[in-house]
Amino acid sequence: MLIYIVFIIYTVLLLLVFLYSLAQFDLYLKYKKNKETTLTTKPIKSWPKVTIQLPVFNENYVVERLIHNIVKLDYPREQIEFQVLDDSTDDSILKTARIIQDYQEEGIDIKHIWRKKRIAFKAGALKEGLKTASGDYLAIFDADFMPSPEWLKKVLPHFHTNKVGVVQTRWGHLNRHHSLLTEIQAFALDFHFTLEQVGRNTAQHFINFNGTAGIWRKECIIDAGNWHGDTLTEDLDLSYRAQLKDWKFIYLEDVVTPAELPIAMSAARSQQFRWNKGAAENFRKNFKKVVGNNTLSFRSKCHSFFHLLNSSMFLIILSLALISIPVLYIKASHPELRVLFYILSVLGISTILFILVYWTSYRKINTGGKVNFFKFIRLFLLFFSVAMGLSLHNSIAVLEGHLGKKSAFIRTPKFNDVLTNNTYLKKDFTVVHFFELCLAIYFAFAIYSAFHLNEYGLLFFHLMLFFGFSFVSYKNIFSK
User: In whole angstroms, what separates CA 451 from the centre of its chain?
Assistant: First the structure.
């Protein structure tokens, strides 16, 4: 009986992965269709008033670069104001104040807004800035983003009707080739911004504002209920609430806003934790509203289901990985079940679908250069290995989100390549780190078992898991 229970659980997990891959493939089909569509713009005779919001928190290494770059935006000076929404608790607040004062003396409309209490974190800061924002449109940039001078004039014409509430641009990467860690992050984000966002936008499914490098219509924010701080991804939350009120979102794949990727594992982990937990919190908060919305198609509701449960795939993959070793032993000791395992192997088409959709985004990003399929396969395998290596950490985040456990908004520190004597880097070894090391050993045992049992069907999967947990453990212990 226990054997059949394990087999059923294993089958259900594989089916969930397969269904998710089908959803991604459907977005791929919409992405291909997007080549036939042209985005609508509206000629602008007089530029509207715009407020630039810069939410910062202890950004000692990038705040100067941020402000110096942002004031270079090519836009009528009388029609633009800048708000530095500063929740800092360290000396960076003094540096920020000096820079702002210098620009104020030059006649630039820039304000330094500091809150004594960091209530509702980033959402609270944005909400506070909205109270005094004079612009009809609000452009938001995190501390590490570097928009080009013509950015506003490229984006604003896409508010072609009064129902367009948000225009989001694609993230670029200033330090893509800094290390293997940044390459993997860039690879994953490129897929989201190239295929997922385009596919959802083309099919008119719900998409999300990505927290930065986009413009909101002020009326849309207010109509949707303003910023809420009850989830760790306030951007996803407001996006869903706005679209549930029939506001339209526009995604611009060809407008790229460069930013800095986390170069330290600790920073990448904190960012992943926030994103994954926040997504689960938003599923808990908003999906019932999506299901109950009679104007949405069944297909859009399905895509919203997978969109909001995207981070929960880590929990599925971790469960699949943990149960795979018992499955290996069951397969070896019960030859009468082999036909069932052969049938299950058909679900391996999920891997083919993932390769196809990621190859599409990789090829798009590398247009103009030499597209090397073998380099892509290397990145694909490394990305999925490291993602699986972070599955325990991210699964904890997902479970906390689904169970309603609240935690603080931990902003991802930006380094500007400063690692020596960096005050934002924290070195510790936690219980989670210990269990990640244990899992590396667990999957080393799985590799041994494949040769011991002469069963090689899961060997490649276990090799990826062993590498992923070993890489993450190495970075936990030895990286700066």
Answer: 38
pLDDT, tens digit, 9 for 90 and up, residues 59-113: 998 999 999 999 999 999 999 999 999 999 998 999 999 999 999 999 999 999 9
- The mean pLDDT value for 411-423 works out to 69
User: Could you give the residue numbers annotated as active site?
Assistant: 87, 235
Element spanning 52, H or E: strand 50-56
pLDDT tens digits for range 268-310: 999 999 999 999 999 999 999 999 999 999 999 999 999 999 9
CB 265 within 8 A of CB 320: no
- Candidates 435, 397, 112, 378; CA nearest to 278 is 397
Helix (H, G, I), strand (E, B) or coil at 390: coil
| Per-residue model confidence (pLDDT) at position 421 | 61
Reduced to 3 states (helix: H, G, I; strand: E, B; else coil), residue 81 is strand
CB-based contact 138:53 (threshold 8 Å): yes
H or E stretch covering 252: strand 248-259
**Tokens 């549930």 sit on residue:** 244
Separation between Cα atoms, residue 78 and residue 109, nearest integer Å: 8
d(CA 480, CA 41): 47
Strand blocks (E) in 98-225: 110-114, 137-140, 164-173, 214-217
The full set of domains in the chain, from first to last, is: 2-31+311-478 (no CATH), 41-262 (3.90.550.10)
DSSP 242: H
Closest among 238, 271, 32 to 124, alpha carbons compared: 238
**Cα separation of 401 and 406, whole Å?**
8
CA 132 from centroid of its chain's CA atoms: 30
Q: What percent of the chain has pLDDT over 90?
A: 81
- According to DSSP, the β-strands at 137-140 and 214-217 are antiparallel
Count CB neighbours of 128 within 10 A.
21
Tell me what the mean pLDDT of segment 3-10 comes to.
Answer: 92
Rounded CA-CA distance 304/290 in Å is 8
Is the model's pLDDT at 339 over the cut of 90?
no
Supply the pLDDT for residue 410.
79
Residue with tokens 């984000």: 189
Supply φ then ψ for residue 252, to 5 degrees: -110, 100
Under the banding of pLDDT at 50, 70 and 90, the label for residue 420 is low
- To which H or E segment does residue 83 belong? strand 80-86
